[in-house]
Amino acid sequence: MGHPNPPANLDPRKRRWWIWPAIVVTMLSLHTAGILFAVSIANHDRSFKVDADYYRKGVTLDARKAELAASEKLGWTVSVSADLDDASKTRTVAVKLLDKLGQPVTGATIELSFYHHARGSDVRTLTLRDAATPGVYAAQTDLTNTGFWQFDFVITKGSDRFVKTIDAQYAR
């Protein structure tokens, strides 16, 4: 510990021995606080997305490729539209499903997962069933943000299974 009244003949460099350790401790403390702040943002901001099941997806990649090839062989086409209802601030998500001959596919069940590209961790899901028009499946949702959305479809009809991912842009 330092002397409360240092002698006048003591070298000034010896009186300030604590400055460099204080600088090191301050720098380490600031670095630690910055890391904790970044971790806090990454865990609480909906813009960041960490796929919780990435390992299983990597292990089952071959099965996923086979599923995509089977979907391609099935020849179905899917298109999605989302019309905004200004009064209720919701959108009607309508999916049109056609077979390889261009005929509507009816009686299918569509599991739809979707998210806005700017909010990757805010994944929403819908189950769509037949609408009044053959081959069209619809549901209401709060798809209010404009911009790019990703839609992941899993469509089943009997033993047929069709998977597809579509990126779509919606304006006001």
Distance between the termini: 69 Å
How many individual β-strands?
Answer: 7
Which percent bin holds the helix content? 25-40%
Instruction: Specify the biggest β-sheet.
Output: 7 strands, antiparallel
Tell me about this structure:
The chain is an alpha+beta fold and 172 residues long. It has 4 helices and 7 strands. The chain has helices at residues 12-15, 19-44, 54-59, 61-74; strands spanning 77-85, 90-98, 109-116, 124-130, 136-141, 147-157, 160-170. It has a 7-stranded antiparallel beta sheet with strand order 1-2-5-4-3-6-7. The longest helix is centred in the N-terminal third of the chain and has 26 residues, at 19-44. The chain is elongated, with a radius of gyration of 29 Å. The N and C termini lie far apart (69 Å). The model has no long low-confidence stretch (mean pLDDT 85).
Q: Quick recap of the structure?
A:
This protein is of the alpha+beta class and about 170 residues long. The protein has 2 domains: about 10-45; about 55-170, Immunoglobulins (Immunoglobulin-like), CATH 2.60.40.10. It is about 30% helix and about 35% strand.
List the helices and strands and how they pair.
Layout: H1 12-15, H2 19-44, H3 54-59, H4 61-74, E1 77-85, E2 90-98, E3 109-116, E4 124-130, E5 136-141, E6 147-157, E7 160-170
Antiparallel strand pairs: 1-2, 2-5, 3-4, 3-6, 4-5, 6-7
Provide key terms for this protein.
alpha+beta, 172 residues, 7-stranded antiparallel beta sheet, Immunoglobulin-like, 2 domains, 4 helices
